[in-house]
Design brief:
This protein is mostly helical. The protein is about 65% helix and about 0% strand.
Length: about 220
């Protein structure tokens, strides 16, 4: 018997897949637009992406920033909030084991769900909130990379997605290693924008193809 509940519709293959593709595209578009609006001060080597979301400072909340109305802040923060909300159906589908039969896969889905709440929080509690913003930012990058590792293992254990899972696992691991290199001063820059975008790309580069596969398969 077909399940016509709201949850079933929200976690249907095609709806979850579209959300999984649309969410990251919205966030990336918002980031690029915000960078374009902040071209006079933003650099990949000296800034954090979150500097784009500080509403009252140009250049970030640290000593390098200057007071001013940051018109890019609503674009950046709004894009992150929208991405976090849009991608929730994909996380719910993974949690409910609608594409796998393992507890490990559901754990990956929970990590994705938690990472999306952290992502929403980054936009809500922007850089002007100081330490709170730092905590939710760390929470996002830790959970999104853990999601990549855990769900990569889940896919690697299934014969039909084995190599795809191995690819996802090592991409997420590479993102984590890049953060380690940054914290141990093994990279030639001071800003965290590059580690941040590398971490996100390490997940997006396989999640979008995964969603395309999910959409084509349907329910």
């Amino acid at each position: 018997m077909k399940d016509d509940s709201i949850l079933a519709k929200l976690t249907s293959a095609r709806f979850a897949a579209v959300c999984g593709i649309l969410g990251p595209l919205v966030a990336l578009t918002a980031i690029l637009v915000a960078i374009g609006m902040s071209a006079s001060w933003f650099t990949w080597f000296d800034n954090a992406l979150s500097d784009l979301g500080h509403p009252y400072m140009l250049g970030g909340g640290g000593s390098g920033g200057t007071p001013g109305v940051n018109l890019a802040a609503p674009v950046f923060n709004g894009g992150l909030i929208a991405c976090g909300i849009i991608t929730l159906p994909l996380a719910l589908r993974l949690i409910l084991q609608r594409d796998h039969k393992s507890t490990l896969g559901s754990i990956g889905g929970v990590l994705l769900l938690v990472s999306q709440f952290f992502l929403i929080s980054i936009g809500v509690f922007n850089e002007a909130f100081g330490r709170l913003h730092g905590l939710v930012s760390v929470g996002f990058f830790v959970t999104v990379l853990l999601f990549g590792v855990i769900y990569g293992i889940t896919m690697a254990l299934a014969p039909e997605t084995r190599w795809f899972g191995i690819f996802a696992f090592f991409l997420a691991l590479a993102g984590a290693i890049f953060w380690g290199a940054y914290f141990f001063d093994l990279v030639p820059f001071t800003g965290v924008a590059i580690p941040e975008i590398v971490s996100v790309a390490a997940v997006i580069v396989w999640v979008i193809p995964l969603c395309l596969r999910l959409y084509m398969r349907g329910d």
